[in-house]
Amino acid sequence: MATSSDPSLVVGFDLDMTLIDTVPGATATLRALATERGYDLDAEALTARLGPPLAHLLADSVPAEEIDDAVDRFRELYPGLAVAPVPVLPGALESLAAVRRSGGGVVVVTGKFAANARLHLDHLGLEVDVLAGDVWGAGKGAVLREHGVGIYVGDHVHDVEGALAGGALSVSVLTGGCTREELLAAGTHVVLEDLTEFPGWLEQHLLSTRLAALEADLAGRGSVLVAYSGGADSAFLLAAAVRALGPERVAAATGYSHSLPQAEREPARRFAESLGVRVLTPETREMEREGYRANTGERCYFCKAELVEVLADLAAEHGLAHVATGTNADDAVAGFRPGIRAAAERGAITPLRDAGLTKEQVRAASRAWGLPTWDKPAAACLSSRVAYGIEVTPSRLARVERAEESVRRVLAEHGVLVRDLRVRDLGGGASLEVDAGLLAGPLAPTTSLRRAVLDEVRAAGFDAVELDPRGFRSGSMNERLAR
User: Fold this and answer.
1) Which among 91, 131, 365, 378 counts the fewest CB atoms within 10 Å?
2) Could you report the per-residue pLDDT of 135-168, keeping only the tens digit for each?
3) What percentage of residues in the chain have a pLDDT greater than 70?
4) What does the DSSP assignment read for 189-213?
5) What is the DSSP letter of 20?
6) Fold for domain 10-20+87-206?
């Protein structure tokens, strides 16, 4: 159902007293029904225990033979009396957004008449993928299973019953009529005060479950050779493999070629060695592949093909069962990633992606584990700086590397911290991308530092250079490819 980073994540929500405060509307409608039909209804008492179907609530106040008719009339009165005054509960919108951010789908399963439930969702702007109404208690289980719901959030013991019947994790909120003790006794797994706590809980839950999945995956692999660039993803994967398998069954392989900046090599080696693993530095010859040098939109395919083929031979030589790359769940849905396709075609495994771990989660877990790479900026290969259609050569890559090193040096000499910096080779000229926040300050158009920085790029061998007014953007060369 979900279409982004985790298609397996589907979260279900009850509606009344979970997402919306139905009490004002239900009270008004019950009073109108009582007045119209002459029933002796205590509307406040009835709405204090919302959750069961309306027929159950009316059973003690309406003659049995009139129950069905009373329910029908309530539903007819409801749209005009109960939709406008009913507010969304605190945290509801943020909770749905949290599911979306995690790549999940949203299902609402409620005992409410489906047509009236839809009126509430539309009126309050609650966007869901599926709405199932007229379902109560254990009967919710079949609906949850049908739509692959793994987490079901409700406020009533009957919601807990439905979650358990559907094999879902039961999360309860205390915004309805049930107490913490009642919900726990019913078997709920988690109790939150209200939905304002749900986004934080979901974030931690997903991280812990995905880390557990990663560990189980790696432990079952026997041994791995990690394609290790020294970046945040591959460094985290290397650390996770050591935790799951032990350092003796893990090795790190960094392909040395013209496209790997010299400045990246020694820090990468030191980190890998600190984990106690073997560090292998095979030479890769992607420059000998015509498709790589031609630098079309498929350049990364040829680069990754070369790397994985070299590492596959290396893994076999060292008795390691798999080659693993640091592809994460965000990479898998990022669109234009020919390198991922090349690696998959050659049998490389992607444990981070398979566990559903996003870039943000990799950084969060890296920080929790005390890895120095947790906040390391993205460091794509030097070839990614060369505009598509311009031949990739060792001299071009060296020119880009000289220019970037010089700009970083000058900025550091002036006490200016820069996180992301790219010199894009556009042929004869270059485009310099830096953190956007610097463009209105130290590198504003009239500053001497701006002129000095541009001079450094020219001195590295570029005929002309411009400072990109939009600042650094990962993958900005793909924008030019799309033109």
Assistant:
1) 378
2) 999 999 999 999 999 999 999 999 999 999 999 9
3) 96
4) SEEESSGGGHHHHHHHHHHHHHHHH
5) B
6) Rossmann fold (3.40.50)
